[in-house]
TrEMBL record:
This is Heat-inducible transcription repressor HrcA. Coiled coil: none annotated. It holds the Pfam family HrcA. One of its GO terms (biological process) is negative regulation of DNA-templated transcription. NCBIfam families: hrcA. GO terms for molecular function: DNA binding. Belongs to the HrcA family. Negative regulator of class I heat shock genes (grpE-dnaK-dnaJ and groELS operons). Prevents heat-shock induction of these operons. InterPro entries: GAF-like_dom_sf (IPR029016), HrcA (IPR002571), HrcA_C (IPR021153), WH-like_DNA-bd_sf (IPR036388), WH_DNA-bd_sf (IPR036390), WHTH_transcript_rep_HrcA_IDD (IPR023120). Residues 114-336 form the Heat-inducible transcription repressor HrcA C-terminal domain.
Length: 354
């Protein structure tokens, strides 16, 4: 049974209180919560046997589990989800947490990515988790593009923007490229590039390739299409995923198997294979979202939770995201306002420097 409202309807006031106290106890200590502990904190005087019966009912509903035969109970993934959606009390952002994040802004002369690095480090330090910051795309108009062959399977695209910003990006070209085909591809791109941002250029080139395919040879067309793929972030180069605080998870007390899963998670992140999916998570709606364990395919290997929020530019367009990864027993009530505030701060920062 997975419908939350139906499960909640089956619970009376006592079972809801037992459920809430088990989850809060687990989030606070990370340890199973036993019936004797609960009897000392319940709002009504009940016996340990009564509490055990309620816990068994909650286990039957799929909300609690028993890690050991004689131990107390811990919330299941379903239980955590129901707690987060219906019972979680979100606290106010603490003044110390706000101050530590605000301190990272630095001077207006700093590069945006430099500031985002500092914000990621501060977010990791404040939450004692691993922070993720997805930096925005560079959206200034393109002035000039050049392709340079580095080896048989590696090439460089040099992007010069109208504001003087220059980026060098390495990508894998289609097989069979020659210096002349790269020059022809660059000439083709530059003919339609000026005054357009990268996103606009991708759309324009797709249209031009379709209309003028006969005017360029097939190898040059492949190269241009490969370039579009890179620029539209089908690969790894547009958005930059900043990961800070990996050690906060790797030094957690836990079984070696759990630590190995967390290492695998970060190996995936560091290869940046899933940046697009990370942004898509944030783009599904405004505000902070919480993903618990296998709810999120990106982090299900680690059994971790992700608290993530998009940030927007001055036009209210989502251009990136910030988030925190931690164990499923995160202090969600504290982490949510921290992530929310950081996302709003980054949005203002990017808008002011656009």
């Amino acid at each position: 049974m997975t419908d939350q409202s139906a499960i909640f309807d089956e619970m009376n006031a006592r079972s809801r209180e037992v459920f809430r106290r088990v989850v809060e106890g687990y989030l606070d200590t990370g340890a199973p919560v036993g019936s004797r502990t609960l009897t000392r904190s319940m709002s009504e005087k009940v016996s340990a046997a009564t509490v055990r019966n309620v816990m068994q009912d909650l286990e039957y509903l799929g909300l609690l589990g028993s890690p050991h035969i004689s131990a107390g109970r811990v919330p299941t993934q379903l239980g955590l989800r129901m707690f987060v959606d219906g019972l979680l009390e979100i606290g106010d952002l603490a003044g110390d947490d706000r101050a530590r994040i605000d301190e990272t802004l630095g001077s207006n002369s700093d590069e945006v990515t430099t500031v985002l690095d500092r914000i990621g480090s501060a977010l990791s330090g404040v939450t004692q988790g691993a922070s993720l910051v997805l930096a925005p795309k560079h959206e200034a108009p393109v002035k000039h593009v050049e392709f340079v062959s580095l080896s048989q399977d590696r090439a460089l695209v040099v992007l010069v923007f109208a504001n003087g910003h220059v980026e060098n990006r390495v990508f894998t070209p289609p097989p069979g490229q020659t210096p002349s085909s790269m020059r022809e591809a660059a000439n083709f791109v530059n003919a339609v590039a000026e005054g357009r941002t990268l996103s606009e250029l991708g759309v324009a080139m797709t249209r031009e390739i379709s209309a003028r395919r006969t005017e360029i040879d097939s190898l040059a067309a492949q190269l241009v299409e490969s370039g579009i793929a890179v620029w539209e972030n089908k690969g790894e180069s547009i958005e930059r995923l900043i990961v800070r605080g990996r050690g906060n998870l790797l030094t957690e007390d836990g079984h070696e198997e759990d630590l190995q899963r967390i290492r695998e998670l970060f190996d995936d992140l560091e290869r940046k294979r899933d940046i697009a999916e990370f942004l898509e998570l944030a783009e599904e709606g405004e505000g902070v979202r919480i993903f618990i364990g296998s709810e999120n395919k990106l982090f299900s290997l680690s059994g971790s939770s992700l608290v993530v929020s998009p940030y927007m530019n001055a036009d209210r367009k989502i251009i990136g995201a910030v988030g925190v990864i931690g164990p499923t027993r995160l202090n969600y009530g504290r982490i949510v306002p921290i992530v929310d505030y950081t996302a709003q701060l980054v949005g203002r920062l990017v808008s002011d420097r656009a």
